[in-house]
Amino acid sequence: MTDPQILRALLDRYEAAETSVAEERELKAMLQSTDLPKEFVHYRQWFGIQAAMQTAKSIKPFADAPWLAPTKNGADHGPTPALRVVSNRSRSNFRYGIAAAAMLAVVMVAGLVFLSQNTGTSPGPLAKANTETPVAIDWSKYEITDPKEATRITRAALTNVSRRIENGSRIASKEVGRMEPIHNVFNSKS
Amino acid sequence: MNLKFLFLALALFFAGTLSAQQDAISTYFSKYVDDEDFTVVYVSGKMFDLMETVISNLDTEDMNSEQVKALTDVVQDMKSLRILSREGDGIAQYRSAKKTIAGAKPYEVLMTVREKGSTFVDFYIRENDGVVDELLLLIGESADGRVANLLDDEEEIDLSTGNFTLLSFEGRIDLNKIGELAKAFEDEGGEIDLNIGN
User: Fold this and answer.
1) Mutate to test the interface with B, among A107, A165, A167, A175 (most CBs of B within 10 A)
2) Do A134 and B19 touch (CB under 8 A)?
3) Would you call B107 exposed, middle or buried from its count of C-beta atoms within 10 A (0-12, 13-18, 19+)?
4) How many domains are contained in chain B?
5) A39 assigned to some structural domain
6) pLDDT higher at A62 or B36
7) Region B90-105: what's the mean pLDDT?
8) Radius of gyration of chain A (CA)
9) Residue B109 counted as domain residue
C-alpha cells in the first residue's frame, strides 16, 4: 500500500531537485504501483510511466503466439499453428540455397579459367604473360594528330596487311595444288 | 547483406576475368611503349572518322577511284590502329610476342606464314558474336636471311638483326574488304614508314 504522505514528501523533494538516485527509484516504483491514489496519477507522466503503461496494456500477452500462453487447468490450445515457423525456416533455406548456388558458380568458373589457362599451347611463359597486371597506357602520347599523316600510315599498314594475307593465301593454295597429284593417285586406286 | 556481398564478389570476379583476357595485347604494349628502342604509333577512332574525308580529297594521281573506294571501305569500320615496331632483335622479339599472343584466350590464329625463309608472319583475330573485332599482324624478320628453321636450329640465327612489327587493327574487320584492298593496291609494296612527318 502506497503511503500518500511519504509519496507527497518525495514528490516535493523531487520538485526541489533534492532527491537522491535511490529516492527517485523509490518514487518511480510508488508511482507505478497499482494502488496509487487518484490524486497522484497525473505525476506518472513525469517519469513517462503513463505512456509505458498504456503501451503495455495495448499489447496482449502471447498475441503472436497464443499457443505458448499458459492455460488454466493445462487445457489444450487446439491445433498448433506451426505455419509461421515453417515459413521462416523455408525462407532461410532459400537464402542458403542461393548462397550455395552462387558459391558453386564461383568455384566452377574459377575451375574453368584455371583449366583453360593450363591447356594452352605453351603454358609456362603464357601463364606468366597473362598474370601480369595490365598497365593503363596513355595512348594520346603516341597518337597521330595530323589526318594526312594518319592516312599515310594507315594506308601503308593496311596495304602491308592485305598484301601479306594475299601472299599467305597464295602460298597455301599453291601447296594445296601440289597435293592434287597425290589426291589423284588415291582417287585412281579407289 | 551477405548475399549482396556474394553477388558483388561474383560480378567483380567475372569482370576481372574478362578484362584480364582482353588486355593481353595491351599488357604486351605496355611493356614496351616507354622503351626508346621501339617506335609506337596510335591512330584513334576519331582520326579514322576524319580520314574518310582526307581520302576522298586526295589527288586522283595519288590513288585511283578503285583504291579510294577499297581504302574507304576498310577505314570506315575501324576504331583504332596500334603499331609497335623495333629495328633489331626482330626474331627474338617476334618469338616473345608470339608466346604472349598465342596464350591470350580470345585470339585465334588466322594464318602463319614463313616468307623467303627469313620472315615470319602471324595473323591473329579476335571474334565477338561472329564478327572479327581485332586483327593482329605479327612480323619478325631476320636481316641476314640465313634462317633455315627457326625453331630447330637456333645457333645459326643472329637474333640481334632484323625488324619486329606488331600491328593491331580494332573495329569491325571484314576480311573480304581487306582482300579487295590487296587487289586494288597490288602494285604497291606496302612497306610501313613510321617516320612521322615524312
Assistant:
1) A165
2) yes
3) buried
4) 1
5) yes
6) B36
7) 81
8) 45
9) yes
Q: Which ipTM was obtained for this model? A: 0.75
**Contact indicator for A147, B51 with CB cutoff of 8 Å:** yes
Q: Which of B40, B51, B192 is opposite residue A147, by nearest beta carbon?
A: B51
Place of cell 599451347: A121
Would you state the pLDDT for residue B82? 93
Do both A113 and A165 map to the same domain? Answer: no
Q: Is A10 exposed, middle or buried, given 0-12, 13-18 or 19+ CB atoms closer than 10 A?
A: buried
Domain range spanning residue A180? 145-189
When CB atoms are compared, the residue of A95, A120, A148 closest to B54 is A148
Are the beta carbons of B39 and B194 closer than 8 angstroms?
Answer: yes
SS3 A103: helix
C-alpha cell at A97: 540455397
* Closest by CA position to B55, among listed B194, B185, B189: B185
pLDDT digits (tens, 9 = 90+) for A26-64: 888 888 888 888 888 888 877 777 656 666 666 666 666
The reply to whether B169 falls in a domain is yes
The helix (run of H) or strand (run of E) holding residue B126 is strand B119-128
- Does residue A152 sit in the same domain as residue A111? no
Q: What is the full DSSP assignment across B67-109?
A: HHHHHHHHHTTEEEEEEEEEES-HHHHHHHHHHHHHHSTTEEE
The count of structural domains within chain A is 3
Q: Is residue B162 part of a domain?
A: yes
Looking at the domain assignment, is residue A37 inside a domain?
Answer: yes
Amino acid at A157: A
Using the Cβ of A104 and the Cβ atoms of chain B, whether some distance falls under 8 Å is answered with: no
> Are A53 and A10 part of one and the same domain?
yes
Tell me how far apart the 2 most distant CA atoms of chain A are, in Å.
131
In a domain, A62, yes or no: yes
Domain presence at residue A153: yes
B124 domain residue, yes or no: yes
Domain check: are A112 and A150 in the same one?
no
Taking the Cβ of residue A135 and every Cβ of chain B, the question of whether any pair is shorter than 8 Å is answered with yes
Give the range of the structural domain holding residue B81, as residue numbers without chain letter. Answer: 26-184
Q: What's at A72, amino acid-wise?
A: K
